[in-house]
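Q&A FORM
Asked by: J.P.
Topic: structure of Cation efflux protein transmembrane domain-containing protein

PROVIDED:
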Amino acid sequence: MSDHGHSHGAALADHRGKLAAVLGITLTVLVVEVVGAVLSGSLALLADAAHMLTDVAGLTLGLIAAVLARRPATPARTWGYHRAEVLGAAAQAALLLAVGAFVLIEGVKRLFEPPEVASGLMIVFGIVGLIGNLIGLLILASGRSANLNMRAAFLEVVNDALGSVAVLAAAAVITTTGWYRADAIASILIGVLIIPRTIRLLRETIDVLLESTP
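REPLIED BY: S.T.
REPLY: Here is the structure written out as tokens.
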């Protein structure tokens, strides 16, 4: 039993390391994209940065949940703190849902009144964001099926990567055609990518929490 407990604890510790590494990368990309959004005037970059900000909060919750899950059971909590990981996943899903709605609303507003944006800067910062996301995906890939908490973290980074691709596509369209509404459309696309998967994940975590036993 002690060997099993030790190996289980080691697995959880490994997940903590992965979450911490991805959190650091996400924070870095967040700062870069905020700077890029300010300099270029791109809503798509700002939307992706807002998504990153939500992911920072979500990954922080996930890291805290992974730490709590390693605490032993007590007479008051006979199943220990393993449900904390499910709570972390539910919190991440709720935050993602909120940011998805925000992006959709702002994107529709920009669709009617598209401002000029610096597409060259969009490309530069979009590439930086995509590289950061790909590194995060590589870190989380091996543990994404370990539990709902890790799955939520992986889903967030996947959505971020898709958002970066949308930013780059919009920048390419603006550069070649001068059609500034592409920036707003990319923002709306980011919101559309976020919401359906987030609702599915939120439903799954709620189903787990409503059960009488883990």
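FOLLOW-UP: Residues 1-13 have pLDDT under 50 and may be disordered.
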